[in-house]
Amino acid sequence: MLAIVAPGQGSQTPGFLAPWLELPGLRDQVDRLSSVAHLDLVAHGTTSDEETIKDTAVAQPLIVAAGLASLSALDIDPAVIGVTAGHSVGEFTAAVAAGVLTDEDALALVSERARAMAEAAAVRPTGMSAVLGGDPDEVQEVLSREGLTAANMNGAGQVVAAGTLEQLAALAEQPPTRARVIPLKVAGAFHTEHMAPAVERLASAAEGVRPSDPQVLLISNAEGAAVPAGEEVLQRLVTQVSNPVRWDLTMERFLDLGVTGLIELAPAGTLVGLAKRALKGVELVALKSPDDLEAARRMVAEHASVEGAEQA
Questions:
Q1: Domains (ranges, CATH) in the chain?
Q2: pLDDT band, residue 309 (cuts 50/70/90)
Q3: Of 44, 87, 191, 303, which residue is the catalytic one?
Q4: pTM of the model
Q5: Is there a catalytic annotation at residue 191?
């Protein structure tokens, strides 16, 4: 079974979109999505510096547009995708891959999400840090001690802590035993109570969207459950702004389903890195550039099955 996954914020790097725009039709696609987002996503994906694309209002639409562009470049028949899922904002990309949202609706919602989250983050300086390694129980104890939230449970020994910058600084000064703390390139404490003001705004924006039911098995990053109805997918996209992401449970569901191959859409690398440790025996491809398309297409031919997708 083939899984298509989409990364979240922090996966972007300066200039990462440039090689994709050389492929036929992709610049036009990104230009169209730029109009929806009211941002120059071509410029942000090619020439904008790291600080500019770290801005939540820029990063989220850019990441989703890039994921959709790489999905177009892969040119895969949705019928052969066994399962799809996305990490944080990548869940919007997955919703398009599953046929729940159009790419225009996804970009419109993501743009509103990004602006609302940026405004919520500006109320009080907050951020996120990855905690790598350490005893899981001790990691949770230390986060609780500092008043931090485990915003992302990513599996493979990685937890993302979120909270105020003072709380994150205290965590860095006294990390859990045998654990490393790495600040992430995000501008707020996403998937925590700090983002509650953004939920209402996104819910209002979602009222005008008419989702379709998934045509591909879509796994929610909230708890690794399949979501069969389009309206429920849309509701979950709204509430996930202030709820933790359980990518560990998402990957466990992939194993339960019998996933044998996984392709990560652009800007790729983060989710494949986690999968290398958590999904032993699953073949992995990260679409970091068009050079990776040949390997991905071979994987589609080897791991995809219309029959398997229907049975899922």
A1: 2-122+192-311 (3.40.366.10), 123-183 (3.30.70.250)
A2: very low
A3: 191
A4: 0.92
A5: yes
